[in-house]
Amino acid sequence: MLETGRIRIAKDKAELVKSLTTIDGGNGPFLTFADAIAFAAALGVKYQQRVPLGEISRREPGPIGMEIFVSRGYDLFIKQVGITATEDIQVLSSSGNGEGKGLQVIFEEYANGGLEILQEKLQGAVDYSERILLILSGERFPTHQGEEFDLRKFL
Q1: pLDDT tens-digit readout, 68-111
Q2: Fewer Cβ neighbours under 10 Å: the N or C end of the chain?
Q3: What are the sequence ranges of the domains in the chain?
C-alpha cells in the first residue's frame, strides 16, 4: 500500500511547483502541490523523461505526505507509473518488502522529469493555465509533422 512516505520535490523545481498552484493566492492551474506533481509525473511518463531529484526542497513545498496523493485518488496512478517503469506487475503487491519506496522514487523521478519539461515549455509565459491548455490542446490535436506552413499561398 502507499499510505506511508512522502513525495519529495527537487529544490530547483520548488518555485515552479508553487507557481503552478492556487496556494497562497497564486493563479496556477492546480489546487494543490499533489495535483501539480501528478500532472508533471504524467508528462514525464509521456515523454519518458525520468530525472533523479538531486537536492530536495525542505521549504514550501517540502515533501508531500503520501496520504494527500491517496486522498486525491493518485495512488493507482503512482502504481501504474511503477508498472510502466519496471514492466513488472508485482509492484502492485502489498507484501511490505520495500516496493512502496521503489514506487515512490520512480514517481518522484518522473515528476521531476515532467517539471523539467514544464520549465522549458512555460518559459516566458505570463499565464501558466493558458500555456498548459495550449500544450494539452497540441497533444490532443497534433499538427501534421511533415507539413510546413507555407506563407506563399497568401501572396
Answers
A1: 999 999 999 999 998 889 888 877 665 444 445 688 899 999 99
A2: C
A3: 6-154
Q: Which residue, chain included where needed, has cell 514506487?
A: 103
The amino acid that residue 43 corresponds to is L
Q: Which grid coordinates are listed for 46? A: 509521456
Q: How is the chain classified by DSSP, letter by letter?
A: --SS-EE--BGGGHHHHHHTB-GGG---SBSSHHHHHHHHHHHHHHTT------SBP-SSS-PEEHHHHHHTT-HHHHHHHHHHHH--GGGG----SSHHHHHHHHHHHHHHHHHHHHHHHTTT-S-HHHHHHHHHHHHHSPPPTT----GGGG-
Whether residue 90 contacts residue 96, with contact meaning beta carbons closer than 8 Å, is answered with: no
CB 115 within 8 A of CB 13: yes
